[in-house]
Specification:
This protein is an alpha/beta fold. Helix content is 39%, strand content 9%. It is built from nine helices and five strands, in the order H-H-E-H-E-E-H-E-H-E-H-H-H-H. Strands 2-3-4-1-5 form a five-stranded parallel sheet, with helices on one face. Helix 4 links the parallel strand 3 and strand 4. The chain is elongated.
Length: 243
């Protein structure tokens, strides 16, 4: 079976994958928009892309960290697709009520790795990957050195992991990202409004993502186009004052 297939078809310590599905839910990421050709390259992510392009990592592990909205999940999804890796959300890790534990054959990509729902599950996955010679890409907002883990073995393993980071987007990338976010939601916005938004939104990827989500929802509910007036009403906490 293809390694990126649904986790519900894996066997866990003799327990059928179908039975595990009711105990541990690890939905795979939607990858329709997170393809390599849709990722926006820039100086703020060049180091991360260089690390992901390597054929080997120390001990087969890499930790990708950075602020929200800087493309970590997108990069993780692209890498997983290119390396036939199973994608898991660490926040959904939980102890199995049947006493079994999840096992993965092949490469692994773990999102939200800095906040696992169950640390033992994450440690077992890392140990299995190392013994099998598989690679593991992890992504989180913070590096391991600034993340808190209760299990000493997990903490030491992660702090010995190679890390790379994405940074806040530079101006050219911000402009392209704003247009891409609008296009992904099939929103038609005049250039004067997009230019105004670009000038007045904070210089962070997360601010752009949040702004577009709010504007899309408001425009859909009210059945009206996205205008400067709508933005002023919906984004008072984000918009910077006129100079």
């Amino acid at each position: 079976m293809k390694k990126g297939a649904a986790m519900t078809k894996r066997d866990v310590d003799g327990v059928s994958g179908r039975a595990v599905a009711s105990q541990m839910a690890f939905p795979l990421r939607r990858v329709t928009a997170m393809t390599s050709d849709r990722f926006i390259n820039g100086p703020s992510n060049v180091a991360a892309r260089a690390w992901l392009a390597r054929s080997q990592w120390p001990d087969g592990r890499l930790w990708l960290w950075g602020p929200s909205g800087t493309g970590k999940t997108h990069l993780l999804t692209v890498w997983a697709h290119e390396h036939d890796a199973t994608v898991l959300d660490a926040q959904l890790f939980s102890k199995s009520s049947a006493g079994g534990r999840i096992r993965v054959q092949g490469n692994l990509a773990i999102d939200n790795a800095d906040s696992p729902g169950d640390e033992a599950t994450m440690l077992h996955l890392l140990n299995d990957a190392f013994s099998q010679g598989d690679r593991v890409l992890m992504a989180g907002r913070l590096p391991p050195s600034r993340s808190h883990f209760m299990l000493p073995d997990l903490a030491s393993r992660l702090r010995a992991t190679a890390t790379t980071a994405t940074g806040e987007p530079e101006d050219d990338l911000r402009a392209t990202l704003l247009l891409s976010l609008l296009a992904d939601r099939q929103l038609v916005v005049s250039q004067s409004v997009t230019d105004w938004l670009w000038r007045h939104l904070p210089r962070t990827g997360n601010a752009l993502v949040s702004a577009v989500e709010r504007l899309d929802e408001a425009a859909l509910v009210r059945k009206q186009p996205i205008t400067r007036a709508l933005a002023l009403e919906m984004l008072p906490d984000l918009l910077m004052p006129e100079e």
